[in-house]
């Protein structure tokens, strides 16, 4: 066949593939191509899984089947087992990958082991190295088939070809181009390459179809049908070898294991199976669909292998049977189809692998390296990295394919395809322990994984890679033959003397063994970082507990940015302190290691988010962090505005709180749960008299109290009351107590808990209340005291009153006795008189009757006398008598008394003498006379014979008036008693009432004069009253009884009399004059007017009927008019008519009828005088 | 001559009547037992009563208030006090307040006749041995002045106030409306210059000579 033709066909196929991909991309720009739920999507997914079937399956398996029988199928058994029995594992992996947003196998493993970038890079490089042979194998296969197709088979086996002559190179170049064009057109955030997937699915169909066609051609065209083939199998020894099947061979378990692992861990396989998975249901479909695909493929291998063996025997490379058979049969179309199938199989794998590897290389190896460089790092912050990333990826694809080609050139060409493939499988299988262990063993840690992979890889390289490079360098061949340093047991092909097994199994055993051991031991012994632990838990559970802002590979943020963010939002001081502390901790080793490039990792993001959440809330913090990571929408300005708004709100609330606190009349102080001050108001400072800058936020209460103690604020007794000394757990809230400050103010202090666990205290000045309470208490005490005193006084007064009452009762008893006696006597007398009068009269009866009557009168008179005296005493007691004290000569009194008593004394035959005295005293003469009268009467009564003397003695400023008698005397014991009522001494010539001295006692008390008595029984007595001397001579007393007619008024009146009868006028004049009034007389009105003109009259006495027909009342009218006042008038008339009476009354005048009664007249005048004196006008009633 | 005797004790009335008629010929005695009765009689027989003998201890009106009332209503009828009390102070006061005479009940009969005769002749009679001027105490002047301004009805009401009677009771006794009583009471208080009934009663008491055992 012509080369150009083949190339054209190849190009055409590739173009078709391109178109399919392009169409797929176009169609899926808005969303998935088909609904993930549809069966088309599931089938498409399974078909993409078939990328596992590369040209190894297409060509290599046939070769393997021809050479070693059924063990070709081992590489299909592995995936089948995984799909059939590892559904749980698969779904878990897919779920985790989606949750953690994993983009590659390196990402996945690194994510599990603490998101370690280093591990990712390591895995990436290991995958690259491991997969290079696999890619090289594809190149080899396609190149060889191409060479066979253009009938230049010698080219395929030729060495020292120039690379441009090497078909494999061409293949590599074209595949690189395709991969670049389709795999790395843009960097999606989700790394879905829908177009690419469609192309892969397409080529899976193509390769299956091609194989099917070839197989069918071989079966029916060359072998003559299945029956013939079957008989051939039984007969031909060689053919029977195809079906040989010895599971005990170590190659079986080894290959199954590594193929199972590789099915998931190959970069391209992971990508299509996990990253590109759109629905977990697809795996369930894949569980039966893909094994069916594999089974079909495997089945189709058998006839081709048999036919190849039959046709070519051992001459042809069995790997080429698929294409060489049709060529040998001259079936050009079939061979072309076979070529296309092979091409398709290889293309799919190469493109997919290169895309996956380039992603891994870019993300995990190249970009971090680039960013480490300063220049590039700075640029990375401000501009999106898309173009850079794309460029890097494209370049890396080129690099990968170049390397693959180099490997193809350098590595032993004589290896069968399968072996090359298995080489890769063993390498990739080193991820197995870390991969699977990480899923199910939370203790698996990064060190273990890294070490395990490293160990495994080393042994793989040593046992497999080294020998394959043997032809290149003789030194290596030497080592391979004899072992390093001639240590036979370290021979790469037979480590530790394990011989006789195929290299793959040998390598598998040792590498996986060492891997596992390291992994297990180091993980068991080592410790995990927090992140690793979280990730381990997340992987073990299959769920991720918290959403972490994902790191878009587009924007890279540095730690400095986070720090700046923290400072801005949390405040310079606190933010710096917290962030630096965090960084220090991380540098010191607690926590995952800081990325030396200064880039953030999820831990620092989470920390910053937490820090910000403390200031602006979790939601805002998330937004701010996400915005800063995304690098869009929330510009710095917007963030600043949000911050300012938040601060403004905070400031406003703070000022509102403060102004509220200040307006309250109480002092308030708030504490947090640790008793540090958080807020206070000015009143608090004022009440406690604290220095204003002493109190600050965060000041511990203990400090405040210490300060107060120092300045003597507390009395010793108050310490217990302070809150710091109380057990807050058992305290009942609110806690209230009062404290007196040294300056006297009393504070009422209330402590209470707040909802957030802090405390708030209020201070109220209750000094006034205390003072008022004090005053009240004192007033109460005072009142009680006064009540007590009054009660005592009252009791005393009551006692006295009761005493007096008793006295009065005794007095009354005595008085009654003395009253009854004379009354009885009077009754007796009158009864006798009555008897006498009712009996017939006899001579001498009249005298006797007269005697009886007068005796009765006498007896009654004595009763009157007693009662008089009693009334006297009572009036003195009642205080009704007032003493009118003035100076008068005592001689006047003596004279009166002398007159009074000398006769009585003479009657009794006693001598009575009065000693003259020329002094004047100050006293009431009537009352003094009373005293002396009583004393003298007593003296007379109680002196049977001898003499009585009345005299006086001067004693200082007083005069002692003494009454001496030579009477019976009074015993000393009786001298007090005698002043009481009804006290009489036994022997007395005449019974007195016993009241005299009682009166003397009272009167003397009234006058304030002292009375005393000296006496000697049997010899006589001396009663004396001490009277103060007057300063002047005094006024003489009026002698004798009252003048019978004292003046009616102090002032005499001027009376005008008008009467035409002269006799009456004379009479009136005499009468009125006698009374002391001034009288004016007139016979007529004119005369009266004249008289009135000279002296204004006080009263006018009028006659009604005057001469000349005029009446006295007319004159009165005139007079009143003239005088201008209502002159008082009395009408004296003989006219008793009603008219006159009315007329008089009308003028307010009284009427007296003639003949005038003097008493009436006097009465009238007296009334007028009295009115004048009182200044009153008589009212009409 | 016709004498009106005002004494609440019927024995004394009878005794006086018989005693006086023996010593005074042509004596016509009219008796009354209360001030209202007296006023009634005087009003009916105005001009014909020559002398009133009045006891100071008549019920209803205490002390000298009756004197005031009678003087106010019948200025031309002489009023002499006849009383068991015979202390000089009372006698002097009675005369000072305008009594035409003071006859103690303990006076002998001939002396009593003599006193009445003299009073009717125009003298002011006092018992002997009662000397000195009766002077009206200065505060009594003012009080008496105020009392003098009261009408008879008001004096009556004042006396009842002193007894402690309520307006309703006063109204019932005097047979007038309670409102009228209230009006009189306020006038009394105004004239006496006091603020309450109690003060008015205290002032009025001063004009009485002191209850036995009281003050």
Précis, in short:
The complex is a heterodimer of chains A (1181) and B (215). By secondary structure, chain A is an alpha/beta fold.
Strand content of chain B: 5-15%
Please describe the biggest sheet of chain B, giving its number of strands, its sense, and whether it closes into a barrel: 5 strands, parallel
- Low-confidence spans of chain B: 209-215
Overall CATH class of the largest domain in chain B = Alpha Beta
H/E order of the elements of chain B? Answer: EHEHEHEHEHHHHHH
Mean pLDDT of chain B: 80
Strand order of the largest sheet of chain A: 4-3-7-6-5
* Backbone structural class of chain B: alpha/beta
CATH architecture of the largest domain in chain B: 3-Layer(aba) Sandwich
Write down the domain tally of chain A. 6
Describe this structure in words.
- The complex is a heterodimer of chains A (1181) and B (215).
- Chain A is α/β, with parallel strands linked by helices and 1181 residues long.
- Chain A has six domains: 3-429, Sodium/glucose cotransporter (Up-down Bundle); 559-650, no CATH class; 664-765, Beta-Lactamase (2-Layer Sandwich); 771-862; 884-1028, 2-Layer Sandwich (Heat Shock Protein 90); 1054-1174, Rossmann fold (3-Layer(aba) Sandwich), CATH 3.40.50.
- In chain A, helix 1 packs across helix 17, helix 3 (55-68) crosses helix 7 and helix 20 runs parallel beside helix 24 (503-525).
- The radius of gyration of chain A is 77 Å and the shape is rod-shaped.
- Chain A starts with a helix and ends in a 7-residue tail after the last helix.
- Mean pLDDT of chain A is 81; it is low at 544-555 and 1040-1050.
- With 215 residues, chain B is α/β, with parallel strands linked by helices.
- Chain B has two domains: 2-120, Rossmann fold; 138-207, Winged helix-like DNA-binding domain superfamily/Winged helix DNA-binding domain (Arc Repressor Mutant, subunit A, Orthogonal Bundle), CATH 1.10.10.
- Chain B contains ten helices and five strands.
- Chain B has helices spanning 10-23, 35-44, 65-73, 88-96, 109-120, 138-148, 152-163, 167-174, 178-192, 197-207; strands spanning 2-6, 28-32, 51-54, 79-83, 101-104.
- Chain B has a five-stranded parallel beta sheet, sandwiched between helices.
- In chain B, helix 7 packs across helix 10 (197-207).
- The radius of gyration of chain B is 17 Å and the shape is globular.
- At the A-B interface, helix 34, helix 38, strand 19 and helix 42 of A face helix 3, helix 4, helix 5 and helix 6 of B.
